[in-house]
Amino acid sequence: MSSRLDRSQTGHTHRLKQKAVASFYNNNPTDKVSLDPSTLLLLQGGNRSINTYDITGVTTYDAGCCCTTPVITNFNIVQIPSSQEPPYQDYVGYFELVWDPVSGATSYVVTSDIESDLPVITGDASANVYFIGDTINDLHTFTLTAMTNCGVGTADISGTPCFLAGSLVQMADGSQKVIENVRVGDTVLGAFGETNTVVALHRPLLGSALMCKINDEHSTTNHHPHISIDRKFYCGNPALVSGSTYGRVHKVIDADGTVVDRMLHGLKKERILPLSVGVELKTVEGSRTTKTLETYAMPPDTQLYNLVVGGSHTYHVDGYAVTGWPREDDFDYDTWTAL
Question: Could you tell me the CATH superfamily of domain 163-338?
Answer without folding.
Answer: Hedgehog/Intein (Hint) domain (2.170.16.10)
